[in-house]
Design goal:
It contains 16 helices and 23 strands. Helix 11 crosses helix 12 and helix 14 packs parallel to helix 15. This is F-box domain-containing protein.
């Protein structure tokens, strides 16, 4: 009998032989917020067998993490009630997209669904570990009892378990005659009654719907209170703020976050010149390793970066600044120096395998691919020879395997190669031509040809050329002359890959079929097909369903 039982156990699949505690850990791992279908996964898991179902039903900590307001059916909220009840008294993770409260009254039936959701949030505020919601209401919506005041009252309460807080609100701005009216929302003061001992992540976003301005009328701004006596600031690891604010207030706030590791600022600074000498002393944030900035102009960027001292290998990620405020030449040089320091410090601490360098008219864009992603825009002038020499000749880029470029970058690379700088990107394997709305004309193609030949001459040939980000319509020349680079693998542009019988989408030069590189010819053929109204047959959609008990 024992032998028979052992034989039966041996025939079971490995997952069926796992201990319940290990299975529970796997099920708990599947509830992580970054899994988009975690609620569906949990439901399917509970339907596999009686053992798994009982294990799931006996685990309120699993169901407490699955209250994603946007993943429930839109015709009934019975399943949501089931999940909430299964959470018992366990800590809660509550998430919802930016339009959650906007779409609930209109798409759900019965219409009192908002009361049900918000009542649950209010009554269980002390159990919430992670909250990621958006308050999104046009001014004339009937918000009932759970409008903007609901959130003010909620966030005024102590949050004993709260670890991650993400809140976004949208104000509706309208023009009435010559007046501008807005759906203002005032944040609590102090937040969480100055008691959130477990809080590590705080993200506060203010967004605004399309604004109709008349004359000098300006929509009012809601301000995050900066003077609140919140001890939890000193324990924050991640802080994100999206709103216009006084620059000196921001510095005061950051000084209270010595353990900060991640910072995200999207703002228009007011009164930047009002910062006194004591306030403008750099804010030391020795653990700050990731900094994301969405600031309108280079002058404000310089002011902010001059006021922050992060870790030596801090990854700076900028959005493209608006250049309607053009700084003076000496300011541009100062910005270049500061931003170049961030590039070099980051590259010195990390081996960069993939890099993008794009030379545009007004700036040089440098992008890294490894997370956290480096993204820096360096303003350009009429003569940046010394800057480019420092950047391109840096030994910090010796590990680059894949380089993305545009025509401007390629021109400078060829100039430096032609001048004898043969140590540029010694490990370069793949050259990617990126899509920046540029036509690949005959001069561009000839430049690329000369660059590849030059790399061959110095015994540092490029092994792969990638056109995959370019549509075939961008090509005004054929590339069959690249057949001479025997062994060069060319990833074909969008709209041409279907011609490859093996479906791989790339061609190896020297294979004897240069017609695959006649992109200009394909461009003309595709144009004729579209003019004739040709459309490829659509693939039949197949939908697979799932049946089972909740």
């Amino acid at each position: 009998m024992p032998t028979s039982q052992a034989s039966e156990e041996h025939l079971q699949p490995p997952i069926a032989r796992l201990h319940d505690e290990i299975l529970w850990l796997i099920m708990l791992e599947n509830t992580k917020v970054h899994h988009a279908n975690r609620l569906t996964t949990a439901r399917y898991t509970s339907q596999v067998c009686r053992r798994w179902r009982q294990l799931m039903l006996d685990s309120p900590s699993i169901w407490g993490r699955l209250i994603d307001l946007n993943r429930f059916p839109t015709k009934t909220f019975y399943w949501m009630q089931v999940v909430m009840s299964r959470s018992g008294d366990a800590p809660l993770w509550i998430t919802g997209s930016r339009n959650t409260t906007l779409r609930i009254p209109r798409l759900f039936n019965p219409p009192d669904f908002p009361d049900f959701v918000f009542t649950f949030i209010r009554d269980n505020w002390g159990r919430i570990e992670k909250l990621n919601v958006c308050r999104h209401h046009p001014r004339h919506d009937n918000e009932g009892r759970y409008g903007k005041q609901f959130w003010v009252d909620l966030f005024s309460k102590p949050a004993p378990l709260l670890e991650e807080f993400h809140f976004e609100y949208t104000i509706q701005v309208e023009r009435v005659g010559t007046e501008v009216e807005s759906d203002e929302w005032y944040s609590p003061s102090p937040w969480f009654d100055a008691s959130a001992p477990a809080l590590k992540t705080f993200c506060f976003r203010q967004t605004q719907t399309q604004t109709l301005y008349v004359g000098d009328a300006i929509a009012p701004r809601t301000k995050l209170p900066m003077w609140m006596p919140a001890i939890w600031f000193s324990k924050l690891r991640s802080f994100a703020l999206y709103q216009s604010l006084d620059f000196s207030d921001l510095l005061v706030l950051l000084r209270r976050m010595p353990l900060l590791e991640e910072l995200e600022i999207s703002a228009t600074f007011t009164n930047p010149g009002s910062v006194n000498e004591r306030q403008h002393a750099p804010v030391h944030l020795p653990r700050l390793s990731t900094m994301r900035l969405k600031i309108l102009d280079f002058c404000s960027i310089l002011l902010f970066l001059d006021s922050i001292t992060p870790s030596s290998d801090c990854c700076l990620s900028m959005s493209e600044p608006l250049l309607w405020q053009v700084p003076e030449l000496h300011e541009v040089k100062r910005v270049q120096t500061v931003l170049l320091k961030y590039v070099f410090n980051y590259c010195e601490a990390h081996d960069i395998a993939a890099l993008s360098i794009l030379f545009e008219t007004q700036h040089i864009q440098i992008l890294g691919t490894r997370p956290p992603s480096l993204s820096i825009f360096i303003p350009s002038t009429t003569d940046d020879t010394s800057l480019l020499s420092l950047l391109i000749n840096s030994s910090l880029f010796n590990s680059v395997h894949t380089l993305s470029v545009n025509q401007g970058t390629l021109e400078f690379l060829f100039v430096f190669l032609d001048q004898g700088y043969h140590v540029l990107f010694p490990r370069l394997h793949t050259l990617k031509i990126v899509n920046r709305q540029e036509q690949v004309h005959s001069e561009y193609g000839a430049l690329l040809h000369r660059f590849l030949r030059k790399r061959q001459e110095i015994s540092r040939p490029v092994s792969a050329l990638d056109f995959s980000q370019l549509p075939v319509e961008y090509f005004e020349r054929d590339f069959d002359d690249f057949e001479e680079f025997v062994g060069l693998s060319i990833t074909l542009p969008i709209g041409v890959r279907w011609r490859m019988k093996d479906g791989k989408g790339f061609y190896v030069c020297g294979s004897g079929s240069p017609e695959f590189l006649r992109f200009n010819e394909d461009r003309g053929r595709k144009g004729r097909l579209f003019r004739c109204g040709y459309r490829a047959p659509r693939t039949k959609d197949v939908t697979y369903g799932w049946s089972g008990y909740i």
